[in-house]
Amino acid sequence: MEHGDASCVLGADRPTAETTDQESDDPSCDEIAIEYRQPEPDVESLS
Q1: pLDDT, tens digit, for every residue of 3-44?
Q2: For 17, what's the count of Cα atoms within 13 Å in the CB-facing half-sphere?
Q3: What is the H or E stretch that residue 35 is in?
Q4: Domain ranges in the chain?
């Protein structure tokens, strides 16, 4: 059972680094944040 725990730790450590690489290489994340910010003031103006 101890071996299974070690595998989980190694697996969780690997995807974490990959996720960081994808976020840095994915400019679409920045575009989405800007798009979500625009509708915010629009809703307040309508109110």
Answers
A1: 555 555 555 555 555 555 555 566 555 665 556 566 566 666
A2: 5
A3: helix 28-37
A4: 2-46
User: Residue 14: exposed, middle, or buried by beta-carbon count in 10 A (0-12, 13-18, 19+)?
Assistant: exposed
CB 29 within 8 A of CB 23: yes
For residue 26, give both structure tokens.
């994915």
Closest CA to 6 of 42, 14, 17: 14
State the Cα–Cα distance between residues 33 and 19, nearest whole angstrom: 18
Tokens 């910010």 correspond to: 37
Q: How far apart are CA 7 and CA 5, in angstroms?
A: 5
Q: Indicate yes or no: pTM above 0.85.
A: no
- Is the Cα torsion angle 40, 34, 32, 12 positive or negative in sign? negative
